[in-house]
Amino acid sequence: MTISSSLNAGVAGLNANATRLATISDNIANSGTHGYKRATADFHSLVIGDSNKYSAGGVRATTTRLIDERGPLVSTGNATDIAVAGRGMLPVTEAVALDQTTGSLPLRLMTTGSFRPDAEGILKTDSGMVLLGWPAAADGTVPVYSRDSADALEPVRVAINQFAGQPTTRMRLGVNLPATATESGAAGDPLNLSVEYFGNLGTSETLTMNFSPTVPASGSSNEWTLQISDSASGGAVIGEYTLTFDGSRANGGTLASVTTISGGAYDGATGLLNLNVAGGPIELTMGSLGDPGGLTQLSDTFAPTAITKDGSPVGNLSSVEVDANGFVHAIYDAGFTRTIYQVPIVDVPNPNGLIALNNQTYQVSPESGPLFLWDAGDGPTGEMAGFAREESATDVAAELTQLIQTQRAYSSNARVIQTVDEMLQETTNIIR
């Protein structure tokens, strides 16, 4: 009966608008929730009837959470407040899952989080979501891991006040030797230079470089003998070389040749000299042949012009930062940094197909498609932003406008039910 279908359509309208009201109330309630993705209710008409008469089919409502919709980023004062500036999500897991002894950690996804170290140094949010990443090797490089599986991801752990040192592996030496010291009649006194480096255990060691000029009977030899000794080796000589400088007008004062007497070989094209100190090899760059930026022999002054090296003494871990590519850097008070983790960006073909869970987290589902782990900023994914949070995607003004529309639509459907009730009552009175 057509009048009965009108009653059913009115009830369906009340249910649909109640669903829409629920999404609006949820969106407004979470307008201040970081990383919240707003929900929407879409209406779909139902058609019932035949060619002879019309029957109201009513309406049904479906809800969708717009996970691919991004809120604006705001800056914060915490280095481990992290947001994804673009497509993709952060891999996290639940803190309670860390106690399990078998199986892989359950993967959850979120677009932003305020992570801070707990008592064990694990970065997690106040709601108990733990940040996951790939651990770096001791030299700061990240091994190659599977990109279609999250099994290799581990909780990011930061040990504040942890001691660490960085050994010296590279050194660049720029020294000017006096040209007058290789002329006939010169005193021939050796010149010494001490350069500090740091051993594998953070100890301070010294390379002593002894430059002895070759004094000819007449003229100028432009030749020196370089002896390098290592304090960590008990002062033993680890390299001896004959340095000959160019006396021509075009390349005057630069290295013309280096002859190895003992120790590591010298590469004239790169200027590299491999020194085997007690703790391992050090690449010493003293300038290629003809390079005015390395060892030179000019005028009458002995002067170190440029001495640079890597490495540092032992220091305390003072802070942690995340760069745009997702690398987690430990910063030590001795002035050096070390890469300890890489946090990948998780992407799925259909973000809106993810299953929404509590605390602005999501789970992969058949509708979302399989996950893939990207380096932040690569492929379709956005960069990772530290010192930042993503605000709620809710537009309160738009939600209030929809609230007014929903209220009127609900009242109109209630009016339909009231009218149908009056008509049925009138029909009953006719029968009487």
Question: Keywords for this structure?
Answer:
432 residues, six-stranded mixed β-sheet, 2 helices, mainly beta, eight-stranded antiparallel β-sheet, rod-shaped
Supply the number of helical segments.
Answer: 2
Biggest beta sheet summary: 8 strands, antiparallel
> What are the segments in which pLDDT stays under 50 over at least 5 consecutive residues?
none
Structural class: mainly beta
What is the overall silhouette? rod-shaped
Share of helix among residues? 10-25%
Beta strand count? 34
Average pLDDT, all residues: 91
Give the terminus-to-terminus CA distance. Answer: 20 Å
Radius of gyration over all CA atoms, rounded: 37 Å
Task: Determine the strand fraction and express it as a percent band.
Answer: 35-45%
Q: Could you walk me through the main structural features you see in this protein, from its secondary elements to its overall organization?
A:
With 432 residues, the protein is mostly beta strands. 15% of the residues lie in helices and 39% in strands. It contains 2 helices and 34 strands. The protein has helices spanning 2-29, 396-431, and strands at residues 39-45, 48-49, 54-55, 59-65, 73-75, 81-85, 90-94, 108-110, 112-114, 116-117, 123-124, 129-135, 154-155, 163-166, 170-177, 191-198, 204-213, 223-230, 236-245, 255-262, 266-267, 272-277, 280-285, 296-297, 303-309, 312-322, 327-332, 337-342, 345-347, 355-357, 361-363, 372-374, 383-385, 388-390. Helix 1 (2-29) runs antiparallel to helix 2 (396-431). The two termini are 20 Å apart.
